[in-house]
Design a protein that fits this description.
extended, 2 strands, alpha+beta
């Protein structure tokens, strides 16, 4: 099954992922399993290239999407 593609815009200097209709219409469990596998593979490739270009990273990268929080937000208490 063709699931999608990785894209790169030289103009915006940003990467993106597009998914095929077949993938988007497949079972959710299949989608989650595939995404987890791809995230792992992409992270491994990132670490490999980083090590070649800059040396090993101090800490392994986290597979955290841009804009997501890695820790819960702090609660705001009135009067503080």
């Amino acid at each position: 099954m063709k699931c999608g593609s990785l894209n790169w815009s030289h103009i915006n200097a940003e990467g993106s992922v597009s998914f095929s209709r077949e993938f988007r219409e497949s079972y959710g469990l299949l989608q989650l399993d595939a995404l987890k596998d791809w995230i792992y593979d992409l992270n491994e490739e990132y670490e490999r290239i980083h090590a070649l270009e800059f040396g090993p990273a101090d800490e392994p990268t986290q597979a955290t999407p841009p804009g997501s929080q890695t820790s819960p937000p702090e609660k705001h208490e009135p009067g503080r």
